[in-house]
Amino acid sequence: MIVGPNNEPAKFNKTPSEPLLEGVAKYPSKRGHHKIIIGASPGVGKTYRMLQEAQHLKKLGVDVVVGYFESHGRKETIALMEGLAVIPRQQLDYKGITLEEMDTQAIIKRHPQTVLVDELAHSNVQGSSNAKRYEDVVQILDAGINVVSTVNIQHIESLNDIVNRITGIQVHERVPDSFIDSADEIVLVDISVEELHDRLKKGKIYAHDKIEQSLNNFLKKGNLVALRELALREVANSVEGQAEADPVFCPLEPTGIHERILVCISTHPDSQRLIRRGYRIADGLCGELLVLFVRLKNRPMPEPYLNNLAKHKALVHELSGKFIEVESNNIADAIIAVAKEKKVTQIVVGESLRSPGWFHFLKPTLPYQIFEKTSHIDVYIIATEHSQ
Fold first, then answer.
1. 358: which DSSP letter?
2. Cα 289-276-14 angle, rounded to 5 deg
3. Residues 317, 338: contact at Cβ < 8 Å?
4. For residues 151 and 186, what is the distance between their CA atoms, to the nearest angstrom?
5. CA 343 from chain center: how many Å?
6. How many separate helices (H) and strands (E) can be counted in the chain?
7. Which residues pair with 115 in a beta bridge?
8. Alpha helix locations (H) across the chain?
9. What is the three-state SS of 271-294?
10. What does pTM read for this prediction?
């Protein structure tokens, strides 16, 4: 669903029929219903929209509570809290400082019909039962409680590299695509760049001492135009994703999934970018993501390399891919063997896997070796950051 400044909805729901949250409130299922409100940037009105939903449900007699809410000092948003029940936050001690986090267990014990959870991508303080707030939401949904939550587009895992190129800012708090994809309903709150800047200049988003800095950094016009386009496309893609179960849109071959994308990685940190790119390709083709690491025989790996590899495995898991590790004396032969065994249709390699400089005249490059020894497999060579 897309809503504008007047909150007039244009349906983008994943299921038809009556207003969805009303229906869920009347006929709750075993697992909670999850509605995510997405925005292209801070200040577009996600939290405001979430509280509007809560006030509407409250009028219908639904037991709705606030699990976590950030006002950022916005008066209009704070006003919408009136009359809503709030679950007190959990107090946690961190290095002698008392910090507050959403109290997930208190929410589950209270067991309302619907709970509001702001800022899905938030990282919980050390000592919390879960590392991330979205993991808290999973627990709440599993307890049979409906959730309305908010997140900005820049926090979606597979978009991390794209957002970094657009804004020049590395976003560290991220939510797995699989979590977003599992939502029952997604709403995009969208306003024009001009209106957002107007709200910012009037102090409706940040304090006055932060306005100029925001206008010249993350919230500058070029960034917002690109992020808004990215958000619109992502929500549209999530709607099209409903067709993935339909063989008309994603036909299955007798051997299984139509497209299999094999991403070949090393222990280098930049491999995370390859994994995300491979995921985007696989997701767009209704395909399966496979990630391959070839460990060279009799080559011990230093601790930093092992740590990087563990991070790569975790990212593959978050993106619902399959991690494959094999041992071999020859990287190209290992890749080709796995590609044939898994019936791979496309291979993604990093630019660093090409033979450097004049050396490719003496030894065929890795993509060339793959072309020579396989058939009907496309190969993508992803440029390194300094080459872009």
1. G
2. 75
3. no
4. 11
5. 28
6. 14, 15
7. 65, 147
8. 20-26, 46-59, 75-79, 104-110, 133-142, 160-167, 177-181, 193-201, 208-216, 221-240, 271-284, 303-318, 331-341, 366-373
9. HHHHHHHHHHHHHHCCCEEEEEEE
10. 0.70
List per-residue pLDDT tens for the chain, 388 residues long. 445 544 444 434 444 334 445 544 544 558 999 999 999 988 899 999 999 999 999 999 999 999 999 888 888 889 999 999 999 999 998 888 999 999 999 999 999 999 999 999 999 998 899 999 999 999 999 999 999 999 999 999 999 989 988 888 889 999 999 899 899 999 999 888 899 888 888 877 776 777 777 777 888 888 888 898 888 888 877 665 544 545 444 554 444 447 899 999 999 998 999 999 999 888 888 889 999 999 998 888 899 999 999 999 999 998 989 999 999 998 889 999 999 899 899 999 887 654 444 334 445 577 777 777 777 788 888 876 654 4
3-state secondary structure of 130: coil
Q: Which residue has the tokens 């916005």?
A: 74
Are 334 and 369 contacting, i.e. CB atoms less than 8 angstroms apart? no
Domains (ranges, CATH) in the chain? 2-243 (3.40.50.300), 260-387 (3.40.50.620)
d(CA 266, CA 255): 29
3-state helix, strand, coil in the chain (%, to 5): 45, 20, 35
> For the chain, what is the largest distance between any 2 Cα atoms, rounded to a whole number of angstroms?
75
> In this structure, what are the phi and psi dihedrals at residue 141, rounded to the nearest 5 degrees?
-65, -40
Report the distance separating Cα 57 and Cα 64, nearest Å. 7
Q: Which residues pair with 10 in a beta bridge?
A: 2
Integer Cα distance of 373 and 381 in angstroms: 17
Handedness of CA 343, 348, 350, 354 (dihedral sign): positive
Cβ-defined contacts of 68-77 (< 8 Å, 24+): 68/102, 68/116, 68/117, 68/118, 68/119, 68/133, 69/116, 69/118, 70/118, 70/119, 71/47, 72/42, 72/205, 72/206, 73/207, 74/47, 74/48, 74/204, 74/205, 76/48, 76/204, 77/47, 77/48, 77/51
